[in-house]
Amino acid sequence: MTFPYKGYAGYYLEVDLTKGVVHKKEMEKEWARLYLGGTGVSAKILWERTTANTDPLSPENVLIVGTGPLTGAMFSPSGRMMFATRSPLTGVWAESHVGGFLGPEIKYAGFDFVIFNGRSEKPVYLFLRDGKAELIDASHLWGKETNIVATMIREEHKDPAVKVAAIGPAGENQVLYSSIIVDFYRAAGRAGLGTILGSKNVKAIAASGSLGLEAYDMEKYLEANAREMERLEDPIWTDSLASLRKYGTTDLVAVINEIGRLPTKNHWTGYFEDAEDIGPEIIAEKYRIAQEACHGCAVGCKYVIRVKGGKYQTDPVGGPEYETIMAFGSNCLNNDIESVFHLGKRCDLLGLDTISTGKSISFAMELYEKGIITKKDTDGLDLTWGNAEVQAELVEKIAKREGFGKILANGVRKAAEQIGGDAWKYAVHVKGLEASGQDPRAHQSIGLTYATNVRGADHLRSISCIEELGYPKIAADRFGEDKAEAILEIMSPKHKGEVVWDVEDLYALVDSAVICKYATMWPPVFYFDTFVNVIPALTGMEEWGNPKYVRQTAERISHLRRAFNHRLGITRKDETLPPRLLSEPMPTGPSKGGLPDLDVMLDEYYEFRGCDKETGYPKESKLKELQLEFVVDELKPLKMTR
Amino acid sequence: MKEILTIDLELCTGCRNCELACSTAHTKSFNPKRARIQILKDEVRNLIVPMVCLQCETPLCQEACPTGAIVENDHGVLYVKQETCIGCQNCVTACVYGGIAIDPQSKKAIKCDLCNGEPACVKACDYGAISVASKKPEGLHQRRKAVSPAFQTLGIQIEEAQE
Q1: What's the pLDDT tens digit per position in A427-462?
Q2: Among the CATH numbers 3.40.1000.10, 3.30.200.20, 3.60.9.10, 3.40.47.10, which is that of A11-208?
Q3: B-side interface with A, Cβ within 8 Å?
Q4: Is residue B140 part of a domain?
Q5: Contact B24 A108 (CB under 8 A)
Q6: Mean pLDDT of successive 10-residue segments in chain A (642 residues)?
Q7: Which of A183, A290, A419, A635 would give a disulfide with A640, using CB separation of 3.0 to 4.6 Å?
Q8: β-pairing verdict for A113-117 and A163-166
Q9: Is A397:A347 a contact under the CB 8 Å cutoff?
Q10: What residues of chain B lie within 8 A of the CB of A295, using their CB?
Q11: Over 90: is that where the pLDDT of B2 sits?
Q12: Across the interface, do A215 and B31 touch by the CB < 8 Å criterion?
């Protein structure tokens, strides 16, 4: 039977790199019905095709390139795509999402998913055009930086419409947190997806397509779509959206410092005295030259900068996000914004995750301050806080895995093991993933988010912005009037288990659809009802018109990802926080004295999730309710269900 | 022929929603490659060049068409009659502004027909970069202003027929 649903391209591609062949296959109906796309479908594929013994860097590991039904279907903001695999950095579930234009282009070229298996003998890149796929020799691209790769591939095909995702030298050199850069300066940054592509000898993925996509009922879909877009006009988020358009995410430097949550000095505190020097106003006034947007996006948070003169002079480049400014700026006590631009740009060209790179450097700076490492260990480099020149040198060394960079290229968890002594105390990570730019000592629910996030310490699987931005109406609408007040209290652990459970499921759909966190997370415009509104008309999957079905699908995806991690040995003891964030009270700033009440929140979260409180393992009844019998079959004999 | 599309390059973010809206209006599918408006981008040089029919006073495309497929519609706007077009691409070669292109699926020429006075792209542009202007001197000036920065960057001199 042919794949019946619209909105999808209808095909996926199996790439056997070892044999050097590609197979085009029809999409599985059940993938769409039960997992929607993106993250959900990736969870199903990774569950089936890897085991607890699959070494992330071996040819047996699988890397998935995914899109969702909304990708390229004129839903703003939906110009996105994702990658998933077993992470080389953390050893557990990894997914990374990215904007730009390649996601829609892959669908217009006729594919919803690409699954990479095996390892190519020599460097190759995958080229997709109008239902056809081929592996092309990439020997001449090996060693090249990401924007050069994209430009060269376009020239090779004499087609400026080709969109490209590429790894840089860091991915080739197996830095464990290498990124994949899509359409110039947009990164699928976290958890080492680029490292996996490098291990498989895949330099890039490129696509150009003119096949287009259909809707099941175009008129109805466009109507539903217009109704959703109207929600963006609600005055309650006018300010948040206006700020994203004017400053991009750089505005967060100011907003977050104000509440004492801006990671500073390797997460020692949440307040940076010089935040203004690296803040939104100075960037907008002195360096910003244009606004940019991903495919079909009405938000347009991207921007272009230029630095005229000085040591860090640059032609126009994509401006850094909040996380990059935080990682290299406040977190390393560096208040020279021009150097931060440079560091962010170099990471994108070399294919390094800016968060993990910045956090690995701040980790080393703290060890240097404490005398745990000295110039003898650092190739003679002076790792004093704020030394931007040394930061820049370290970025190059990490990408090349050269000298001291060889240790930092392994991320803070492994680097701490290699360095030994007390180093582990300063390694700020969960499950091996360096913490992103938040702090649970100033925002309780972040503690639970970091602890339970399937890919480790970052915000993108379940951060709740309701209490952070203060939306009483949203809190009441989603959780009831009686709970709203406690939920809005940013330092209260009350109801935060329920809130994080709820947003984790919401983002599971967001990441499967595949749409952006802006307008779903920050500000919280779209909710479960959005999917109920648009998915049936777009795809023809009638069951998606049932709110209960939609929520259940979200839960199914969340549980399958968790099960993937359980199979690899993850339990409640791993769903915790690094010592600094768990038990060192916030030393300075507006949130001074703050600490997360993690256990209380975790208990409540497991309750809502349908998991055992002692181990974090899922209840068998819950899995069966979600049609995850195949998970029960595998986890039960391992005593990983309750 | 009383109206033209003008694009303010300062406001364009290169998001291509105009392409999507155009393809939806004309082909009932999401397919930017079949859009009558095209955004050319050179990210390395930070260059965005929207390409759309300028509704010329002396339409070179019409003159170049051997089958007379480019004709006025009820609103006085030139469009390509699909049943008459033979896909020879003479019009594409003739147009110096890249305002007419070949549809990758039908292999016939397509150009902006201003959607009977309510262009889908204008409505879809969230940044207000596209507008409909009258074909009076102010509108023509606006049209020239819109194309000149890109042409200057590309090193091409342009002269407006009427000004």
Answers
A1: 999 999 999 999 999 999 999 999 999 999 999 999
A2: 3.60.9.10
A3: 13-17, 20-21, 23-24, 27-34, 40-46, 104-105, 126-127
A4: yes
A5: no
A6: 93 98 98 98 98 98 98 94 98 98 98 98 98 98 98 96 97 98 96 98 98 98 96 94 95 97 98 98 97 95 96 96 98 98 98 98 98 98 98 98 98 98 98 98 98 97 92 96 97 98 98 96 95 98 98 98 98 98 98 98 98 98 98 98 97
A7: A635
A8: unpaired
A9: no
A10: 15-17
A11: no
A12: no
Exposed/middle/buried for residue A593 (C-beta within 10 Å: 0-12, 13-18, 19+) = exposed
Q: What is the pLDDT of residue B162?
A: 44
Domain count of chain B?
1
* Cα pseudo-dihedral A34, A37, A43, A46, rounded to 10: 120
- Residue A520: what residue type? T
Contacts of B109 (CB under 8 A, 6+ apart): B61, B69, B70, B80, B85, B87, B89, B91, B92, B100, B101, B102, B103
**Could you tell me the residue range of the domain that residue B85 belongs to?**
3-153
Amino acid at A388: A
pLDDT band at B146; cut points 50, 70, 90: confident
Rounded Cα gap, residues A401 and A391, in angstroms: 15
Q: Sorting pLDDT into bands at 50, 70 and 90, what band is B159?
A: very low
- Across B5-9, average pLDDT: 90
Using the Cα atoms of residue A389, residue A394, residue A395 and residue A397 in order, give the sign of their dihedral. Answer: positive
- pLDDT attached to residue A39: 98
H or E, element range at A231: helix A218-231
Phi, psi of A157 (to 5 degrees): -95, 5
Give the per-residue pLDDT at B139: 79
Question: Regarding the domain delimited by A444-638, which CATH topology (the fold level of the hierarchy) does it fall under?
Answer: 1.10.599
CATH topology of domain A244-427: 1.10.569
CATH number of residue B139's parent domain: 3.30.70.20
Residue A208 Cα, gap to closest chain B Cα (Å): 9
Domain boundaries defined on chain A: 11-208, 244-427, 444-638
Amino acid identity, position A465? C
DSSP A619: P
Start-to-end C-alpha separation, chain B: 17
Burial code (b: 16+ CB inside 10 Å, e: under 16) for B80-98 equals beeeebeebebbbeebeee
Residue of A nearest to B45 (CA): A316
* Spatial separation of the C-alpha atoms in residues A157 and A151, rounded to whole Å: 10
**What pLDDT score was predicted for residue B163?**
40
Pick the residue from chain A with its C-alpha nearest to B104: A210
Residue among A241, A291, A303 with most chain B CBs within 10 A, to mutate:
A291
Residue A1 confidence (pLDDT): 61
CA-to-CA distance for B41 and A316, rounded, in angstroms? 14
* Interface touch B127/A290, C-beta < 8 Å: no
